[in-house]
Design a protein that fits this description.
Elements lengths: L1 E7 L7 H12 L3 E7 L5 H11 L3 E4 L13 E2 L1 H6 L4 E5 L2 E5 L2 H11 L8 E5 L5 H10 L4 E6 L2 H10 L7 E6 L2 H8 L4 E4 L17 H4 L5 E4 L8 H8 L3 E3 L2 H16 L5 H12 L2
Parallel strand pairs: 1-2, 1-3, 4-6, 7-8, 7-10, 8-9, 10-11, 11-12
Antiparallel strand pairs: 3-5, 5-6
The chain binds NADP nicotinamide-adenine-dinucleotide phosphate (NAP).
Length: 281
């Protein structure tokens, strides 16, 4: 039996127990997976609980992804580059930190038929979710990356932190209808990494004209999974574009965490299908 948890604040609506439950059931592993509300500053007492209850691992969401780092005995290279940890494995009382967000996103797209090498991507947003994705896209072989953000200074800062190989081009600009049109016209991948269109958020894209100008084989990916089909994705589908919501990323980053917790090396695509079938049949 492995004992797992997810911590964050808020945590009530987390889909992590369903995602990990689906994966661990498919693997035939017996487990417990609990949601624990841990407020900012509450890591010391949560870590005492981890020790007392002999928790084997835990996932982290806002606001703990960076705050956990000083507590770790080991941090994986990808988590270190992102400056954020979403998976902690507890071994012999020591904490080992990983980040499966960037790779989870890349796996989700790959499973859905997208290949990255020599492609061009545009991301809207420059917050916590975009950072690992932007870094991962470059290591997957994207050769032109544009980051558009309401606050362009944040996009500029993120761009400065990206490591670029020779020949790779990086741009940033303000997120607005004319920049969306200009930068997406010949891109292969558009990602919405803002909260525009998210359930409970009273703001959405006002002008989606740019979708009409995109290449017909381009993929539109929204990190949002609630609602399952945002206005962006509905309009993209209406234009005949491929559209993917954030559930695939959520599932894939969860699968990669479970690979760390269980040590079982399983087929990513098969596991994705098993988990997806349970969560969104
Ligand atoms: P965050 O760090 O708070 O960043 C929010 C981003 O949205 C910023 O770029 C912000 O721009 C932009 N934004 C917010 N309101 C806006 C508005 N009215 N107009 C234009 N831009 C606006 O949040 P995050 O953690 O990166 O999350 C971003 C999205 O990704 C959320 O919808 C979240 O649900 C989703 N997400 C999905 C997954 C998954 O597994 N599928 C994982 C993590 C996050 P400024 O910089 O100008 O404020």
């Amino acid at each position: 039996m492995i004992k797992l948890a997810v911590i964050g604040d808020p945590i009530e609506h987390s889909l992590s127990p369903s995602v990990h439950g689906a994966v661990l059931d498919a693997l035939g592993v017996s487990y417990t997976y609990q949601k624990v509300r841990v407020k900012k500053g509450g890591l010391d007492s949560f870590l005492r609980y981890v020790e007392d209850e002999k928790i084997d691992g835990f996932n982290l969401t806002m606001p703990h992804k960076t705050d956990i780092i000083p507590y770790l005995s080991y941090i994986d290279g990808e988590a270190e580059r992102y400056g954020a940890v979403n998976t902690v494995e507890v071994r012999n009382g020591k904490l080992y930190g990983y980040n499966t967000d960037g790779r989870g996103f890349a796996e989700a797209l790959r499973i859905n038929g997208f290949s990255f090498v020599n492609k061009s991507a545009v991301i809207a947003g420059a917050g916590g979710a975009v950072r690992p994705i932007a870094m991962r896209l470059l290591s997957e072989g994207i050769i032109r990356l544009t980051i558009l953000n309401r606050t362009p200074e944040k996009a500029a800062k993120l761009c400065r932190e990206l490591e670029t190989a020779e020949g790779v081009k990086i741009f940033y600009d303000t997120l607005e209808p004319n920049t969306l049109s200009r930068y997406t016209a010949d891109c292969d991948l558009f990602i919405n990494g803002t909260s525009l269109g998210m359930e409970g958020v009273n703001a959405d894209f006002t002008d989606l004209y740019f979708l009409k100008k995109m290449k017909k084989d381009a993929l539109v990916s929204d990190l949002i999974y609630r609602p399952a089909r945002t206005k962006l994705l509905k309009y993209a589908e209406a234009e005949g574009l491929r559209a993917l919501n954030g559930l695939s990323m959520l599932i894939c980053q969860g699968i990669l965490s479970d690979r760390i917790y269980t040590g079982i090396d399983f087929d990513m695509k098969k596991m994705f299908e098993a988990a997806k079938e349970k969560i969104a049949p």
